[in-house]
Amino acid sequence: MDTAFKFKYLECLNRLQGQDYLAAIISFGAAPTIKGKKPASLLAFSGRRKNIFTLWHCYKQEICREFNLEYFELKNRAEIATVLLYKRKMLEKYLINRNNFDFLSSLGYQEAVTMEEKLRLLKKRFAFTCPHEVGIFLGFPVEDVKGFIDNKGKGYLLARYWKVYLNRERAELLFNIYDQARIDAANAVIRYSEEYNYKQGLLPAFWPGNF
Fold this sequence. Notes:
The chain is an alpha+beta fold. It has one domain. The protein contains ten helices and five strands. The protein has a three-stranded antiparallel beta sheet with strand order 1-3-2, with helices on both faces. Helix 1 crosses helix 10 and helix 2 packs antiparallel against helix 10. The two termini are 17 Å apart. The model has no long low-confidence stretch (mean pLDDT 91).
């Protein structure tokens, strides 16, 4: 996303209020997941800007339903909600992948049979820190999660959506796909803001149909 496009997107985004603003934030932050390119996305909703923390709690069910997402709140305190937004079938499939399953089992998830049990254990661990295994839930390659742990976050080949330790070409391909999903979401915000007269209250709801 080049600088000029980014500024235009932010200008249009900041014209939105309330439910529309939250929907636009989610559409961008979770774009790869909404588009079905990634099992889950992790977003934090803070009370600092436009009180998005309150907006989340007011409109989360309606917005997630419209975006065909499910959500799981990993943290919800001190005016910040840390939320995993996910596609159920895609995340379930990812978690039962043999390599991912074995890695999570090595970290104590062997007794967490269902996805919900795994999410509850992840939430418990989030109470103390951001656990490394969250990368598995977010669709990061297990070898990169292991590489991050073994190398203490150093010596990586590439760093964008995650730090890459193996198969740079695959990561670059995925990063480009994720970037395009976010560009599509940003373009939707721009079109939405420019095509309707927001000041006169003529805006329809900002939903997936807009992009």
